[in-house]
Amino acid sequence: MDLSIVVPSIRADKIQRLYDSIPAAIGDFSYEVIVIGPYKPPFECKYIEDLGSPSRCVQQGVALAEGKFFTWGTDDGIYNPNSLSEAVSLLKTLSHKDGIIMKYTEEGPPSSLTGAHDRYYI
């Protein structure tokens, strides 16, 4: 298993869109999805029923993660095409002490950190 993706979820009506974006984002790498929230999603995944905060949900998800690498996403977001595959490819070239933070952006002006709205990592 290459990547574990944890999703704290309280918006049952939004999570399917995130899930549907993963295949184009991950490419040929293997992955698992771990959802933590009050609603079990309609797709195959590991699931923990919880009403906790997103940070607590991520901590719980780590306990179930089997991937060599780990990330998390918001239930109302999507992954850009090739974003996860590029991150995993890069992580495989680095030491295990390194990591990549996947950047979450809202629609609107470009990020003040990168100057580009479409970059997926910092």
What topology does this entry show?
Blueprint lengths: L2 E6 L6 H12 L4 E7 L8 E4 L4 H11 L4 E4 L10 H9 L31
Parallel strand pairs: 1-2, 1-4, 2-3
Quick rundown:
The chain is an alpha/beta fold.
Main attributes of the structure:
122 residues, alpha/beta, 4-stranded parallel beta sheet, 3 helices, 4 strands, disordered C terminus
Shape field: globular
Largest sheet: 4 strands, parallel
Average predicted local confidence, pLDDT:
82
| Amount of helix | 25-40%
Radius of gyration of CA atoms, rounded to a whole number: 14 Å
Task: Say how many strands there are.
Answer: 4
Give the number of helices. Answer: 3
Structure description:
With 122 residues, this protein is α/β, with parallel strands linked by helices. 26% of the residues lie in helices and 17% in strands. It has three helices and four strands, in the order E-H-E-E-H-E-H. A four-stranded parallel β-sheet has the order 3-2-1-4, with helices on one face. Helix 1 links the parallel strand 1 and strand 2.
